[in-house]
Structure formats: structure tokens, C-alpha cells
Amino acid sequence: MDKNENKTFDDRVEFGDEQFAGVRFRNVSVPQGANIISAKLRFRAEDDDDKSLTVRIYGENSDNATVFTGSYGTIKDRTKTSAYVDWAPSDWNRDSTYESPDISNIVQQIVNRSGWFANSSMVLLIDPMSSNEGRRFYSHDDNPGKAAQLEITYDGAATDESLLVGLRFQGVGIPQGATVTSAVLEFEAADTASGAVSISIKGEDVDDAAPFQSTANNISSRAVTDGQSLGG
Predict the structure, then answer these.
(1) Helix, coil or strand: residue 70
(2) Does residue 1 sit in helix, strand or coil?
(3) What are the distances in angstroms from CA 57 to CA 18, 79, 124, 127, 230?
(4) Where would I find the H helices in the chain?
């Protein structure tokens, strides 16, 4: 079966019907090596479609997926993950929402890459396995509120025993040279956890700390002060 690039209309994108489609998600805030519990794609149908269809979902095997361009092959020629999931979508009704099967194996392979970092971009690729009528969904360019969504549930950075976290505070009103008599960090727990943990708190040894950037080693490459080790 000859497979073409995805059809892009004024207000929709299509997968199936011999059309190879891709969806790109920016700022995917999953840490490198996190344990992916579940992941799924969610689409809003642009039209009624009731023909039988089978597609295969891959990911782009990339640390930080680049934007799609208008040139032929910008979608179908991307390097695919070895992980994939087959999907036979049910009948679609216009403006109803439909979810893919669990694609956690695909997302896991991507975030396990050594060059992946939180807030990278991720591309999911949809390859038609049959030549029947496709499924049409709203594009982000036309209607962001109805565009495809990626929902990921994950559990920390389970494959990495140590995790470096940075916190940046703006407008710290302490004069230069002031004697600091006490300073504490306060956190509100987002979840329940137990067991011993050892941490080391350090500051960035700089006059005016720059904002964090979504680039590799942006935290770990900063110059630091002597640390304060804590156990608990």
C-alpha cells in the first residue's frame, strides 16, 4: 500500500485512508527515565466516520522532536521507535472525543533516551495498516481547544536513583553583605512517601541567577556553593 503524507485541510488532519499522520506536543514535562504508568492520545472528531480502520502508533525516536515543515517526508521519514501499538478505532461522531489504547511503551522508550529532558517536544506517528476511510480530527492551528491531546501518568524518575532539582526565586530583597541569621526552604507535599532519603542542598554561586532553560544540563552545569547535607 502506498502511504502519503497526512492530508491537512483548513480545519482538520486525517489519519488512515492511506494517510500517514503525525502529532507533535511541546513542553512534555516528564523527567528523563521516569516510570510511565499510562499514556494515551485523545482526539476530537471533525467528522462522522464509520468505516473499519486499523492504524499503528509509533513515537519519533528523538530526544527533542523538531517541528513539522511543508516538505514531503517531514512526517513519514522520521525515525520510529521500536515500540508501537495497534489501534482499530470505533466509529467516530463529529465533535465527540476518542482515546487511543495505552501507548505507555512508546512514551517509555522516548523518555528513557539519555538525551531526553523534561519539557522536550514529543512526536507521535500514526501509520495506516488498512486502506479504508480514515479518521479526521481538529488541528491545533484552527482550533487549539479541540486539538489532539497527550495524557501521561508517570511515577517520578524511577530509573534514576538520584535526581537534581533546581529552584529559582525572584525579587529576593536582601541587601548586599547583610548577615543572614537563618534561612529555610518550605515545601508542601503533593503525595505521600515513606522511607529514608538523603539530600544535599546547594546554592548557585552567582550574583544574579539566570532563568532555567529547557536544554540539557542547564541545572547540573551551574557553579554551586558548598552544600548542606540532610538525611531523613
Answers:
(1) coil
(2) coil
(3) 14, 13, 7, 6, 45
(4) 104-111
